[in-house]
């Protein structure tokens, strides 16, 4: 099986698995306990926090470990909204966010907040001018993802961050779940106040994520209780998971440095192969490097049910996906592709290929050959 | 010197079989259960098996179990979920007790900041809530009552069945935090009148970072984590597959051994007390004389300061605690003992010993002896 679905989840790195299982048996204490077993777990937790902070280029005190990217996003949006609800009720986001932002925004609307959902162009990107124009006196938060999970579209985060510096009361949240370790990311330099990551998209374990909270930013905690994570996130710390996440963050940064054009090369090869299909296959991801992260390539085959094609390709040994793994109903058009192209058929037939650092050019060639075989069959059968 | 771990109410070592059950799900079965390809499907089936194991242990159906990241998240969801879902209907009041875990107490305080009102019921000197007080506290605006099953600091078991019946009569939801009770007490939601019940894996030999909330079929609640459609839209986020698998394994082991563990823990308790009696050590037993969790033993040694005692115990290789581990490093005076109205010298000298499956009669006896020596030494010094 060739796994081309790294944007859904990634196989944990063997060193990460080792670190997690070892931590599970060796450091079983509760970091809040005062005795040796607790203190040891606390020390391991602190080390992991330092590793994670270094990988992200922030301070250890700015890292809040959570249980997932979803939790981090919820904590950021609700945390700002509830904390500052007396100052304002307005939030700016985009039409192409992951459900873990999009649906939280919808819920906040039900709770009396107002939300502006910015449109995107055909590259899936928002315009920094639109962001600035959407700001109001009562705007609390701008939440914009870095890399889109369906298309790889890369938002102009640095530019938006630069402009938001002129609005010191507006906080800036970035969902960087798909971008960390794949494309450059600089929370401090870009003026980001809050940033979400998750372990399982970067060869770390499930059940752990983090929220970067810039020093000086106060949040209403999403999870109340024992006051762990500086009071911002209660719950007994998942020490082994956190150890694994920190390790995975360090490892993926090393890979990123060692293989800077790995994904771009794979993407060029794949896109060239898809182009050979002419207008039967529509490329949905923008092609240029400054417009998209190259580890995600989305295309539509109008007229072909994506599940049918996916299933055929699975029989050939290739695993990929239709839109995001989290979407519920199968034949609903993708909200992201709708926002980009306004074309229902195109948005209904999107297929996503996503690479990891283990993916090779041979995998891409094999995939293209499998597509050639099975898509030709499907098209012939439809005509026949 | 071997360390004797007597702090299982804070957290437990992961059972080796649990680790073994989890490993394949880190490696070959790493698929995302929401993915539609075969990889994801296999993982989805494994999660459904795990859900069934947990459901069976509580006497319910798999669809009633919502996996969370732990007891804290399950408690937050149990309170926030119904509170927000019914706020529009003017249901803005909750009832709880003064001796809940912080995960419930702090959540209540957060709800107060967001416009809800909360009644915190007192307890008697054994740590029990009076069901009549619950009945009196319920108002037309009350949406939910939350009373823990068994207390994490002193072990007192609450009259949950009676409180549940009152809640049912009055048409309000009843939540119970059974994090400490699960695994040692028989819990059957088919007969127990509860609507929401919290459990956590790391207290029963499972991994950290996973827990569950039982949600009765007719409970209307909002999710606390919004996003994907996981957990039947009651809790978004990619499932912590290895964690869930490990949780189920721990539940399976705990259920098979539950009766035996109870007996062992009760034996350990008697053993410690008898060692102290034989040595003529004065102690005060905290909690309820009959309704208590078998693995939690909370005692005070008047004249000895809790913190000094714990430090000395730690040096002597005994891991015990002052009560809740969740007060983040600082040793606060226990809100539970305070609520029980115990005299300052009892509150200020309380320690909690909590047992687990790896403890043996020898090491419990050894621990009791070391405690006795230290208490004697500290008392002589005064
Ligand atoms: C962009 C984006 N944000 C958030 C998430 C949610 O993260 P998690 O799966 O850890 O809940 C995902 C993945 O599903 C994602 O792709
Ligand atoms: C009674 C009780 N409720 C809730 C919790 C919190 O559970 P978790 O540590 O899984 O967040 C604990 C343990 O800390 C507890 O003892």
Summarize, please:
With 384 residues, chain A is of the alpha/beta class. Chain A is built from 12 helices and 12 strands. Chain B has 2 domains: 4-12 and 258-381, Aspartate Aminotransferase, domain 1 (Alpha-Beta Complex), CATH 3.90.1150.10; 16-252, Aspartate Aminotransferase, domain 2 (3-Layer(aba) Sandwich), CATH 3.40.640.10.
What does this entry look like structurally?
The complex is a heterodimer of chains A (384) and B (382). Chain A has helices spanning 14-26, 36-56, 69-83, 99-110, 128-134, 157-164, 239-258, 262-275, 306-315, 335-341, 344-348, 361-383, and strands spanning 2-3, 63-66, 90-94, 114-118, 139-143, 171-175, 194-198, 209-213, 282-283, 296-300, 318-319, 350-354. Chain A has 384 residues and is an alpha/beta fold. Chain A folds into two domains: 2-9 and 259-383, Alpha-Beta Complex (Aspartate Aminotransferase, domain 1), CATH 3.90.1150.10; 14-255, Aspartate Aminotransferase, domain 2. In chain A, helix 1 (14-26) runs antiparallel to helix 7 (239-258) and helix 3 runs parallel beside helix 4 (99-110). With 382 residues, chain B is of the alpha/beta class. In chain B, the strands form three sheets. Chain B has a seven-stranded mixed β-sheet with strand order 2-8-7-6-5-3-4, with helices on both faces. A three-stranded antiparallel β-sheet of chain B has the order 9-10-12. Classes of the chains: A alpha/beta (384), B alpha/beta (382). At the A-B interface, helix 1, helix 2, helix 3, helix 4 and helix 7 of A face helix 1, helix 2, helix 3, helix 4 and helix 7 of B. One pyridoxal-5'-phosphate (PLP) is lined by residues 70-72, 75, 101, 103, 148, 152, 177, 179-180, 200, 202, 211, 326 of chain B. The site of one pyridoxal-5'-phosphate has 15 residues of chain B, from helix 3.
């Amino acid at each position: 099986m060739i796994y081309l679905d790294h944007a859904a989840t990634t196989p944990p790195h063997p060193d990460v698995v080792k670190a997690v299982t070892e931590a599970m048996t060796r450091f079983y204490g509760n970091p809040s306990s005062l005795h040796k077993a607790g203190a040891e777990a606390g020390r391991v937790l602190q080390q992991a926090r330092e590793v994670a902070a270094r990988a992200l280029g922030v301070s250890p005190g700015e890292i809040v470990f959570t249980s997932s990217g979803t939790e981090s996003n919820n904590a950021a949006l609700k945390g700002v909204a509830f904390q500052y609800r007396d100052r304002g009720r307005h939030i700016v986001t985009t039409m192409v966010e992951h459900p873990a932002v999009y649906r939280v925004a919808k819920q906040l609307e039900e709770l009396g907040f107002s939300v502006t959902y910015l449109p995107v162009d055909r590259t899936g990107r928002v315009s920094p001018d639109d962001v600035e124009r959407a700001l109001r006196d009562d705007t609390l938060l701008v939440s914009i993802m870095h890399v889109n999970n369906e298309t790889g579209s890369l938002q102009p985060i640095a530019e938006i961050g630069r402009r938001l510096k002129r609005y010191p009361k507006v906080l800036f949240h970035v969902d960087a779940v798909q971008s960390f370790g794949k494309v450059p990311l600089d929370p401090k330099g870009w003026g980001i106040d809050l940033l979400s990551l998750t372990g399982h998209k970067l060869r770390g374990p499930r059940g752990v994520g983090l929220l970067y909270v810039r020093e000086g930013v106060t949040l209403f905690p999403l999870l109340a209780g024992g006051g762990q994570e500086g009071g911002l996130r209660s719950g007994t710390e998942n020490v082994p998971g956190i150890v694994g996440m920190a390790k995975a963050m360090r490892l993926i940064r090393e890979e990123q440095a060692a293989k800077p054009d790995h994904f771009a090369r794979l993407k060029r090869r794949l896109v060239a192969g898809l182009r050979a299909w002419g207008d039967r296959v529509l490329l949905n991801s923008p092609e240029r490097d400054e417009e998209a992260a190259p580890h995600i390539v989305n295309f539509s085959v109008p007229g072909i049910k994506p599940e049918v094609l996916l299933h055929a390709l699975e029989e050939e040994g290739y695993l990929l996906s239709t839109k995001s793994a989290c979407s519920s109903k199968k034949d609903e058009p993708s909200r992201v592709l709708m926002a980009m192209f306004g074309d229902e058929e195109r948005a209904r037939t999107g297929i996503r290929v996503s690479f990891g650092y283990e993916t090779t050019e041979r995998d891409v060639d094999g995939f293209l050959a499998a597509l050639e075989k099975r898509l030709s069959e499907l098209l012939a059968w439809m005509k026949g | 010197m071997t360390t004797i771990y007597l702090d299982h109410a804070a957290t437990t070592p992961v059972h080796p079989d649990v680790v073994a059950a989890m490993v394949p799900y880190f490696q070959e079965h790493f698929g995302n259960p929401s993915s539609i390809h075969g990889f994801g499907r296999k993982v989805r089936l494994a999660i459904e098996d795990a859900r069934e194991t947990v459901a069976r242990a509580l006497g319910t159906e798999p669809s009633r179990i919502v996996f969370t990241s732990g007891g804290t998240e399950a408690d937050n969801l149990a309170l926030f979920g119904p509170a927000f879902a019914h706020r529009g209907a003017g249901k803005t009041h909750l009832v709880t007790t003064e001796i809940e875990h912080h995960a419930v107490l702090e959540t209540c305080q957060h709800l107060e900041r967001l416009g809800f009102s909360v009644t915190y019921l007192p307890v008697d000197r054994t740590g029990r809530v009076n069901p009549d007080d619950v009945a009196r506290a319920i108002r037309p605006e009350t949406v939910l009552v939350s009373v823990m099953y068994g207390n994490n600091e002193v072990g007192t078991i609450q009259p949950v069945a009676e409180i549940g019946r009152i809640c049912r009569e009055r048409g309000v939801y009843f939540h119970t935090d059974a994090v400490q009770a699960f695994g040692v007490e028989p819990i059957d939601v088919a007969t127990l009148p509860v609507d929401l019940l919290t459990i956590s894996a790391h207290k029963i030999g499972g991994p950290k970072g996973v827990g569950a909330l039982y949600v009765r079929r007719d409970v209307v609640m909002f999710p606390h984590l919004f996003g994907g459609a996981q957990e039947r839209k009651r809790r978004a986020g990619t499932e912590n597959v290895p964690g869930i698998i490990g949780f189920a394994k721990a539940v399976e082991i705990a259920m098979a051994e539950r009766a035996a563990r109870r007996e062992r823990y009760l034996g350990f308790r008697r053993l410690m007390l008898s060692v102290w009696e034989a040595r003529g050590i004065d102690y005060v037993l905290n909690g309820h004389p009959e309704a208590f969790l078998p693995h939690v033993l909370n005692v005070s040694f008047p004249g000895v300061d809790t913190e000094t005692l714990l430090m000395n115990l730690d040096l002597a290789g005994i891991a015990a605690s002052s009560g809740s581990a969740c007060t983040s490093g600082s040793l606060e005076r226990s809100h539970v003992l305070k609520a029980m109205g115990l005299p300052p010298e009892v509150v200020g000298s309380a320690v909690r010993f909590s047992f687990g499956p790896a403890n043996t009669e020898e090491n419990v006896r050894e621990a009791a002896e070391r405690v006795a020596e230290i208490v004697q030494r500290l008392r002589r010094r005064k």
